Amino acid sequence: MAALKKVLVANRGEIAVRVMRTLRERRIGSVAVFSEVDRLAAHVLFADEALPLGGKTSAESYLRIDKIVDAARRAGADAVHPGYGFLSENPSFARALTAAGLTFVGPPADAMEIMGNKLKARAKMLAAGVRVIPGTDGPVSDPAEAARLAEEIGYPVIVKAAAGGGGKGMRIVRGPDQLAAALRATGEEAGKAFADSAVYLEKYIDRPRHIEIQVMADARGNAIHLGERECSLQRRHQKVVEECPSPFVDAAMREAMGRMAVQAAKAVGYVGAGTVEFIVDPGRDFYFLEMNTRLQVEHPVTEMVTYTDLVELQLAAAAGEPLPLRQEDVRARGWAMEFRIYAEDPARGFLPAAGRILRLREPVGPGIRHDSGIYQGCEVSVFYDPLLSKLVVYGAERGDVLERARRAFDEFVVAGIKTNIPFHKWLLAQPAFAAGDCDTHYIDEHFRPELLAQDPELPFVALVAAALAYHQHGRGAPAARGEADGATSRWRQAARREAVMRRSTHG
Amino acid sequence: MSEGRYVVDIGGAKRRVAVAARGARWELVLDGETHLVEQAVLERDEVVHLLVDGRSYLVDLVEKDWKRGRFVINFFADQIEVRVRDELEAVAEEITGGRGGEESFELRAPMPGIVVRALAAPGETVARGQGLLVLEAMKMQNELASELDGVVQEILVEDGQMVDGGTVLARVARSEPPAGT
After folding, report:
1. What does the pLDDT read at residue B105?
2. DSSP annotation string for A188-233
């Protein structure tokens, strides 16, 4: 396959911009696509070319395979990078691109299909010798049979509805005496909720950690891993902070997890960048959870520590080139943490926030990388994911990174919409976080909005600023005070006019 | 001309402040304590840098309603609403118990959203705090209320309409609207 000359990025927001940055570094043309709402989104402003998809919702725009294939053809792109989310893990999309003679920057559709199906993936992994969470591989109904299986798996176990999902239809059982009742209750509940009362058993992991391994494979059967990412800090199953390396993983464990992840990738004929997620119990036993067949949101922490550009490696793999590094060439240095910046209000149940970003001052300086999809003046729409940007902080030691992150958040100004920055400040003040001791339940168990601390100087500073502004605004120009009455934009125009007039009068 | 006395509502507290020019600087007397402030305007009425007794503060005036003296002030990650009133105005307001002197109220959308329904019709008498319409934003329904005892002059939006933040949604007049409008 020839080297890529022009790549369409079938995504929006920070990830689209991040992919285009590598394209630009590699002197590859970048094509953005955008919905009606996104005409002025950051990725459109950044791209070399941009094509409208029409539509407002994701379903009308970024999820439309036909529109994206058509845009790629019209732009004369030779490949499509899907980013994460949207169509990135959709085998039909990969197939549609291939059929149109375009290269999909991602794994083969078949590999995506297997990994996208829990049961198929589990069977495939079992066959390949990858450790999965012990459990019954099919439904159980007979209580005596269930008791025997539960004993084999080892308590605690979890009873799950076969048709369930998203935390619905499941019960934790800590001993044999609770099992029969749990089977009955879960079955009845599942019958009502999903019209399917089949249940199965799985080992329940208390205080689990979520640790994942980055893998990279080429089309010639080579695969390597690039170490782990610690992703245990989650709020309602949504990752909030990720780091590399994990404070919980030592060299031997990394080696073992890495080997297993490579095994998993090879078992499905994987090509490109992928992530194998593991659930890890407090005794350091780890089990395959799933494989994400795309670039992850949190990929930058791996990049900072391994000195790689995962998008560049993806592009090379898609172009059919061999992996540029062998396992023994992978070197990790230092520590990196990613803080996801969401448009949501931590003081009000993390309610998504939308509106215009009136003021933006991004942290800079030593050890800071800000992968962002926003700019001052841009509109944050209600239509898409509330992820605005990712603040990536890196340094030699974990302790340095924590201090640096605190400093970075002290510099960070986002005004006009609510963000979760105050939440990150809270998190950075927690001893458990500083010690690297958080499991996946930590935030849900410990965070309360009352714990958000405001800068103690805020009321004083705001009072001084407001009183002075009001005082000066009113004096000498009484007419100005009533003008535009709170309408910022109209008022701003008036102020600009006034400023221009002043300049012309005074020289 | 360069002296003023104000009552400032902030974070549930009422503070008295006197502002006076001292050459190129300002003297602020806040609850009997004097502060010397040097102000540099980075962007007119948008961004100011303050040196308060030598301490450095970069402040953003995010929202401004000069007529009502309402501000939303941003200081790094934090925001706070502030209301500044002339001392005399504040005293008058406390006596009348209302918004002294204001003849009309414009209801503006506090955020972008979709109008669910109007709760009052033109010509209807409404009390302060009474809902005028319901705006849905981020899947939450918010009742927006009149800030004035008066009569609804007009409802400027329709049910189901999408509006930007700041859009005028309705007008309420303190007295009966003049005949013919």
Report:
1. 86
2. HHHHHHHS---EEEEE--SS-EEEEEEEEE-TTS-EEEEEEEEEEE
Contact at CB, A466 and B46, closer than 8 angstroms: no
Chain A residues lying within 8 Å of B52, measured CB to CB: 461, 464
Cβ neighbours of B103 in A, within 8 Å? none
User: For residue range B131-141, what is the model confidence (pLDDT) as tens digits?
Assistant: 898 888 765 67
Final residue before a domain boundary, out of B43, B60, B93: B93
Q: Are B77 and A409 inside 8 Å of each other by CB?
A: yes
- Domain end among B32, B62, B93: B93
Output the pLDDT for position A479.
Answer: 36
Asked, colleague to colleague, whether A107-133+206-333 and A134-203 share their fold, the answer is no
Q: Which of A411, A463, A481 sits opposite B66 (nearest CB)?
A: A481
Distance of CA B44 to the CA centre of its chain: 19
Q: H/E element holding A354?
A: none
Provide the sign of the torsion angle of the four alpha carbons A455, B32, B35, B43, taken in this order. Answer: positive
A489–B15 C-beta distance less than 8 A: no
What angle, 0 to 180 degrees and rounded to 10, lies between the N-to-C axes of helices A310-318 and A13-25? Answer: 70
User: How confident is residue A486, by pLDDT bands cut at 50, 70 and 90?
Assistant: very low
SS3 A175: coil
> What is residue A498's predicted lDDT score, i.e. its pLDDT?
46
Inter-residue contact B70 to A462 (CB < 8 Å) = no
Among residues A401, A340, A450, A420, which one has the least CA distance to residue B77? A420
Report the residue of B82, B103, B106 to disrupt the A interface, i.e. the one with the largest count of A CBs within 10 Å: B82
Residue B125 structural domain: 104-173
Domains of chain A: which residue ranges? 6-105, 107-133+206-333, 134-203, 334-447, 459-506
pLDDT per position as a tens digit, A137-177: 788 888 999 999 999 999 999 998 887 765 667 899 999 99
How far does Cα A10 stand from its chain's mean position?
16
Q: Do B138 and A353 touch (CB under 8 A)?
A: yes
Q: Is residue B149 part of a domain?
A: yes
Q: Number of folded domains in chain B?
A: 2
Task: Tell me whether B44 touches chain A (CB under 8 Å).
Answer: yes
Q: What is the CATH number of domain A6-105?
A: 3.40.50.20
Closest Cβ–Cβ partner in B63, B78, B137 for A488: B63
Residues 69-108 of B with CB under 8 A from A: 69-71, 73-80, 82, 84, 106, 108
Structure tokens at A394: 């890196």
Top-tier CATH class for A134-203: alpha beta
ipTM of the complex: 0.76
Render pLDDT for A209-223 as a digit per residue (tens, 0 to 9).
Answer: 999 999 999 999 999
* Superfamily of segment(s) A334-447: ATP-grasp fold, B domain (3.30.470.20)
Q: What totals of helices (H) and strands (E) does chain A contain, helices first?
A: 18, 22
Residues B14 and B34 in one domain: yes
pLDDT of residue A314: 98
Helix crossing, A179-194 with A143-153: angle to 10°? 110
Q: Which tokens hold the place of A127? A: 């066959």
